[in-house]
Amino acid sequence: MLIWLSAGICLALVAIIFILWKWGNLKMIGVTPVKTFTFIAILFTSGLDVGLIMFPLTEFNRYSSQADYGFTNPLAIEFGFWGFFIWAFYFLTCFYFCIIEPKVKFFEIRWVQLLNNVVIIGTCAFTAFLLLKNLPWYLPSLSDSKTIEPIFYLIVFAAIALAVYSSTELKYVRLLSLSSTVMFLALIAFMWGSAFVWGDSHISQYFAEELLLSGYFENIQHFLFPINKYHAFYLFWWLAWSVMIGQFTARFAGGLRTWQLLLAMLVFPSIPIALWFGVLWHYHQAQIPTAGIRNLMMVVVGILFVVNSLDSLIRLYTDNLKLSPQRLGRRNYLLLNFAGLVALTLLFKADFIKIQWVGALVIGLFYCCLAYILHKKLRSVSLINSSPKENKLNFDKFNLSH
Hints:
Elements: H1 2-23, E1 27-29, H2 36-46, H3 50-54, H4 56-65, H5 74-82, H6 87-104, H7 110-138, H8 150-166, H9 171-196, H10 203-210, H11 214-218, H12 229-250, E2 254-257, H13 258-267, H14 270-286, H15 293-320, H16 325-328, H17 330-349, H18 355-382, H19 396-400
Helix pairs in contact: 1-6, 1-18, 2-9, 4-5, 5-14, 6-12, 6-13, 7-8, 7-12, 7-15, 7-17, 7-18, 8-15, 8-17, 9-14, 9-15, 10-14, 12-18
């Protein structure tokens, strides 16, 4: 599996370099373009899930104690698993679905459609499973911090239900994305303030600790390929997300040039991630307890991230499968999607499905797509010099699409 993962990463890196060389200055316009701030908000909140909120405090000790991570500090390791380089996967798939797929139509082939939707639905359920798995740690007052009580199932199922409902209309995309971004920034400010304004910590400590992030950029070569099986889990997870986030975000590309989009995807999401991880690292180092309102706020924002991500993914696979609310009827649409995602979430809980398998399937799709282009569509792709002609830079189109 590690060799297969490395092969997938090699293909992604080569493809990104080629795209920048051939189409680096091309203006990217999606089917429903939005302004840059909205696009970044959609990208950030759709491209992340509850793990960003809930994983770090449970992982810092792992990175401190294991020799595999000895080349840098735990904060840099955590950032390396979530920030900067790995967002290049999203750039690759966003560019492909915005510029190349309209010419190639690889994902319109029936068997590819099937596998693509398996990836989307499986990763969708994994997102809900992560919330279920981590709730006991963050809400220990409701359990013994290990047991998943019925209340946690109720919370997760309610999040799924809300996401299914919000996916019925496009207008909720902007609302969820912007509100998730604002809530996340507010959470950072609250956690920062409660530690430094109302606590005994000093601001200088926080900024000194943020400098530890330089350990990531000084050792970035270690993060390109799997460090160990746990890092491989993360990379498979990102690859699983990439194919569907690319499909979803490509439709909202709002006129940035290719090189600008790459920089935007690498830099803008990484800034709040760095600020957030710095706060959590300070809590870890200073042994500041998070029980009570802090954990509760993290859970609330985590749930909002889950709803936002599920909304995007549900909208994507129902569009692909032509299972719209208009075709099925709103009630049938809600019941079908809710029941399916609940069932798959429970399969992840039973360890019947693993996200690594989904990521491995995505790598297979990448290589099949490359082979298809080289065999049948090479001339069509080589002649691409603009976004699809039918895509116009009309920001009002988003408002008129629902």
